[in-house]
């Protein structure tokens, strides 16, 4: 009798040697507890009872729904990776600011007068800080405190979207409240404060959704909004712009219907982005007409 190994996964008792479907040259007498096919040692994966083949393990992982938070974010273990990455980028950028004598700062800062020609500065300015260590230390500390709570709650995708749109919203706030008639149009701004205020706004609604007392957040927001009254050279306009974006996205993330969370996670940022773009285009469209009235 000729022993054949040409039929992968043939049942025992037929006279044929069972072989691994992935490796037909390997006889395999151990079978997957899920599909019943032979699995060689390389393709075996420990299961609660017996072993499973790699194909069944992959299929199980694909079809099993991952655990979600009350806001729809995927539950992950470990450190807040996005928050730590943002902090790392800001620290590296700050070192480059010091090392280049201001050249790095001037390359990426934002001012209403340059935003139309260099639109990327609406975002890049949020990763810059003044040369004073207190500026970056305060912002990074606030980011760490709020980020390690919001990132796991909202999920990484929602959190990074919130942060970046709030950062852009901060510069849009500066633009909207600037006037080409005075120095505010040419004054450069730097700092993550707009994005941080966006997180403040979002965490307010997150805590309200969970039934927690959010009065401390309101006090924190009020104190920081009042700081420009006592400390000069603070772009409070960026605080307002970032806060409004954070409130909008925070409310959308927190109160989205359970069956619409994934849709809202895409739709809400898209709407906010369109609004920010529309306000920016409108503001810059008014500048030529103002200039013509001045005879420029």
**Strand percentage, roughly?**
under 5%
* Spatial order of strands in the largest sheet: 1-2
Q: So, the CATH homologous superfamily of the domain at 81-282?
A: Rhomboid-like
Named CATH architecture of the domain at 81-282? Up-down Bundle
> How would a textbook summarize the main sheet?
2 strands, antiparallel
CATH topology of the domain at 81-282: Rhomboid-like fold
Give an overview of the whole structure.
- The chain has a two-stranded antiparallel ribbon with strand order 1-2.
- The chain has a domain of 202 residues: Rhomboid-like fold (Up-down Bundle).
- The chain has eleven helices and two strands, in the order E-E-H-H-H-H-H-H-H-H-H-H-H.
- It is mostly helical and 296 residues long.
- Helix 6 runs parallel beside helix 8 and helix 7 runs parallel beside helix 11.
